[in-house]
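WARN retry 2 of 3 for item q-0093 after timeout on previous attempt; input resubmitted unchanged.
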Amino acid sequence: MKFLLQFFTWWNGQTLGTRFHTWRHGKRVGQDDFGNVYYTGGTDSEGRTRRWVIYNGYAEASAIPAEWHGWMHHRTDVPPTEENYTPRDWQKSHRPNGTGSVNAYRPKGSIAASGERARVTGDYDAWTPRG
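OK item q-0093 returned
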């Protein structure tokens, strides 16, 4: 089953192509608290060292913690495994996308929520004939 998922999907972990590329060129750099594994190896078109992540489960880019985000985007050359990283108080941990679940955002007045939306200046007033 895992083989078929890797063969036909890209959102469930890694594809066979990524597995092969990682095996040939990848050097493991570290792992985060979510179980995502980070690699480096080769160079991109700008001459920078390639960096990539193998997600633990569903591939969701927002699941990359703040400490790894800067390293992934070449904002720092030192991975969090080689420094004593402490997150800033304004940095929040990952929260899964709630769309389609009970945690979805439902503003006041929407069909899925209770209450009535506050009236705004751009609201439409329907024409009615004067009779």
